[in-house]
C-alpha cells in the first residue's frame, strides 16, 4: 500500500462529505475528487482543496477508494463506477433496499466493497463486547438495549440499537426478531426469559448514547457508548478506506477493519 490513500468523496457537500474533507486533511490522504449531484449548489465550489464536480466516471480511475455518503440511488451508481475503475468502494449511505444490497454484493465480485450503517470505531467495538457478554452470561441474565438521541430523530429504535440487539442475539445464538421486546406499557406480565428489550429516549441535542444492560441475580453489566461529535463517523470511514485500499475484491465489514489482523 502506498503511504498516501487517494480518495474520491461522493456527496462531498453534505454533512458527512464535509466532515470527511475535514478529517482527510491528514497527510496520509489525498482527496483526488469531490463529487456532487447535478444541480447541487456545491458544484464548482472549492471544498478542502478540490473543486466539486459532478462526474465520478472521469476521476475514479485515479483513486484508490471511492467513499460514498449520499443517497441510495447514488450509492449504487457510484459502486458500479468504482468497480469499473478498479477503485475500492466504502459507503455509509443508509436506507438501502434489498436490491441495492444485491448490487453491492455483485460489485464485490469485481472490487473490494465495505458498506456499514455505523462507522464509529467505538460502536463497532461495543458490538463485539455485547456479543461476548451475551454469549458468556447465558439466558439467566436479562439483556436490554437503551438508546437516547436528539429530538429531531424520526426512527426508533436507532439503527445502532438494532445493530447492538443483533449482536446480543448472535451471542445467544438466536434471531433478534424472534426475541425482541420493542416496547412495554401497562400490565405487561413478568419478563419473558430470553427476551431482548429496547428502551428509547428522545430529547434536546443528544448526538447518540447506547447502553446494553446484562442483568443477572445480584449483579449487572452496563456497556455504554456515548457519541459527542459526528466526526467519529468520518474518522471511522477514513480508517476503513485506508484499510480497504489494498484489499482483494470481496465484501468487507467494519469488524474486518478493526479485528482482522492479517487478511
Ligand atoms: P446530507 O443530506 O447532508 O448529504 C448528502 C449529500 O449527498 C448532499 O450534499 C447531496 O447533494 C449529495 N448527493 C445526493 N445525490 C447525489 C448524487 N447522485 N451524486 C453525488 N452527490 C449526491 O446527508 P448526510 O448527513 O451527509 O448523510 C449522508 C448519508 O450517510 C445518509 O444516508 C446518512 O444516513 C448516512 N450516514 C451514515 C453514517 C454511518 O456511520 N454509516 C453516519 C452519518 C450519516
Structural class: alpha/beta
* Order of secondary-structure elements: EHEEEHEHEHEHEHHEEEEHEH
Q: What name does the CATH topology of the largest domain carry?
A: Rossmann fold
Overall tally of structural domains: 2
Question: Would you kindly provide a brief summary of this structure?
Answer:
The chain has 263 residues and is α/β, with parallel strands linked by helices.
What is the topology?
Blueprint: E1 5-10, H1 15-23, E2 29-35, E3 46-47, E4 50-53, H2 56-60, E5 65-68, H3 72-85, E6 88-91, H4 98-107, E7 112-115, H5 121-137, E8 142-149, H6 159-172, H7 176-179, E9 180-181, E10 196-202, E11 208-215, E12 220-227, H8 231-244, E13 250-252, H9 254-259
Parallel strand pairs: 1-2, 1-5, 2-4, 5-6, 6-7, 7-13, 8-10, 9-10
Antiparallel strand pairs: 3-4, 8-11, 11-12
Task: Explain how this protein is built.
- This protein has 263 residues and is α/β, with parallel strands linked by helices.
- It has two domains: 5-115 and 230-259, NAD(P)-binding Rossmann-like Domain (Rossmann fold), CATH 3.40.50; 121-227, 2-Layer Sandwich (Dihydrodipicolinate Reductase, domain 2).
- The model has no long low-confidence stretch (mean pLDDT 95).
- β5 (65-68), α3 (72-85) and β6 form a beta-alpha-beta unit.
- Helices cover 35% and strands 25% of the residues.
- It has helices spanning 15-23, 56-60, 72-85, 98-107, 121-137, 159-172, 176-179, 231-244, 254-259, and strands at residues 5-10, 29-35, 46-47, 50-53, 65-68, 88-91, 112-115, 142-149, 180-181, 196-202, 208-215, 220-227, 250-252.
- The strands form two sheets. The protein has an eight-stranded mixed sheet with strand order 3-4-2-1-5-6-7-13, sandwiched between helices. Strands 9-10-8-11-12 form a five-stranded mixed sheet.
Amino acid at each position: 500500500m502506498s503511504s498516501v490513500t487517494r480518495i474520491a468523496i461522493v456527496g462531498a457537500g453534505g454533512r458527512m462529505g464535509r466532515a470527511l474533507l475535514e478529517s482527510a486533511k491528514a497527510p496520509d490522504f489525498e482527496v483526488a475528487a469531490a463529487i456532487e449531484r447535478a444541480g447541487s449548489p456545491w458544484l464548482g465550489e472549492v471544498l478542502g482543496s478540490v473543486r466539486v464536480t459532478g462526474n465520478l466516471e472521469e476521476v475514479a480511475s485515479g483513486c484508490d477508494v471511492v467513499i460514498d455518503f449520499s443517497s441510495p440511488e447514488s450509492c449504487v451508481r457510484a459502486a458500479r463506477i468504482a468497480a469499473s475503475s478498479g477503485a475500492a468502494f466504502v459507503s455509509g449511505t443508509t436506507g438501502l433496499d434489498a436490491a441495492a444490497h444485491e448490487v453491492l454484493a455483485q460489485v464485490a465480485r469485481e472490487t473490494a466493497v465495505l458498506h456499514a450503517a455505523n462507522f464509529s470505531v467505538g460502536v463497532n467495538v461495543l458490538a463485539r463486547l455485547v456479543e461476548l457478554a451475551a454469549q458468556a452470561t447465558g439466558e439467566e441474565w436479562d439483556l436490554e438495549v437503551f438508546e437516547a438521541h436528539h429530538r429531531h430523530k424520526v426512527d426508533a429504535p436507532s439503527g445502532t440499537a438494532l445493530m447492538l440487539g443483533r449482536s446480543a442475539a448472535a451471542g445467544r445464538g438466536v434471531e433478534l426478531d424472534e426475541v425482541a421486546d420493542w416496547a412495554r406499557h401497562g400490565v405487561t406480565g413478568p419478563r419473558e426469559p430470553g427476551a431482548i428489550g429496547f428502551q428509547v429516549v428522545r430529547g434536546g441535542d443528544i448526538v447518540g448514547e447506547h447502553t446494553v444492560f446484562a442483568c443477572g441475580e445480584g449483579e449487572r453489566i452496563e456497556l455504554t457508548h456515548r457519541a459527542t461529535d459526528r466526526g467519529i463517523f468520518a474518522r471511522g470511514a477514513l480508517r476503513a478506506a485506508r484499510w480497504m485500499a489494498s484489499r482483494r475484491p470481496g465484501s468487507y465489514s467494519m469488524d474486518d477493519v478493526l479485528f482482522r489482523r492479517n487478511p
